Amino acid sequence: MAQRTDRTVLVLLFDDVQSLDVSGPVEVFTGAALYAGDPGGACRIRTASLDGRPVRTSSRLTLVPDHSLADAPVPHTLLVPGGKGTRHPDPRMTDWLRENAPRAERIVSVCTGAILLAAAGLLDGRRATTHWAYCERLARDHPAVEVDPEPIFVRDGNVATSAGVTAGIDLALALVEEDLGRDAALTVARHLVVFLRRPGNQAQFSAQLSVQTARREPLREVQQWITEHPDDDLSVESLSARARLSPRHFARAFQAETGSTPGKYVERVRLEHARRLLEDTSDGVEEISRACGYGTPEAMRRAFVRTLGSAPAEYRRRFSTAPITH
């Protein structure tokens, strides 16, 4: 590989790559370069395929790389996208990653790009994520990797892995904020008309999508009630009465049909509702804690720290889009 260029982003290309895994982060890094006033230097983007030949994406677009991998510059950030082409990768590509990726300051994957990193041994002993549909495969095929299927992206040292497609944009924005500051990341996000609000430990699914919809009508009605009334009495006893079942029968049936206990489902709904209020309103923390069924700010704080690793006030500071008046 050629002489290193500071802040260069090198994107690995291969046939059947997911085009948005490439273009999403590239647009973010390009916007960061424009913000920095150095479009040809500070965040310069380079692409490389195995032999320097054009590749066809999974959506049949043709991408023409700047380099072959052998001639590519040593980057500050190496970006490995995902797509169908990660299912049976060319061994030469994983060999190249094994030998050369550690020379980059930062290694980043989007979606199933994590599978390529794992195949090269770059995720051994690390916590990582990928698209929810491939987390089980990643964990099964690479037991040395600590796979976390929940977050949209994970940072472990100088290696960052993200979930499917748009999560790559979230991760890229987080890296821009790290490199150039929050104002830069906000400017890029506004230009791309996306929100700078999703933390890495945000779940890949909302509470409603992370579980199955119950088959039986009474249980579906209870799921809807929980979503619409997070501040109500959502104990098993109260919910089972609404479903006209005994508490024991209700708890068993709810878990069997949704894949989640009633308590965990209620916890997710309340946390998600609290996060939306912190992001979108200027309501005080005490008011939000009552509106979401926590009762006290301290109960809500414990739930945030346990699940998101930050207190409500810190979460609001980082991700709110509303003016704070309280």
Structure description:
- There is one protein chain.
- The chain is 44% helix and 11% strand.
- The protein is α/β, with parallel strands linked by helices and 326 residues long.
- Helix 1 (19-35) packs parallel to helix 5, helix 1 (19-35) packs across helix 6 and helix 8 (236-243) crosses helix 9.
- The model has no long low-confidence stretch (mean pLDDT 87).
What are the secondary-structure elements, in order, as H or E?
A: EHEEEEEHEHEHEEEHHHHHHHHH
Query: Could you tell me the strand content as a percent range?
Result: 5-15%
Q: What is the arithmetic mean of pLDDT? A: 87
How many whole angstroms does the radius of gyration measure? 22 Å
Count the DSSP helices: 13
What structural class results from the helix and strand content? alpha/beta
How many extended strands? 11
Shape: globular
- List the strand order in the largest sheet: 5-2-1-6-7-11-10
Main sheet record: 7 strands, mixed
Low-confidence stretches: none
How widely separated are the two ends? 54 Å
Helix content: 40-55%
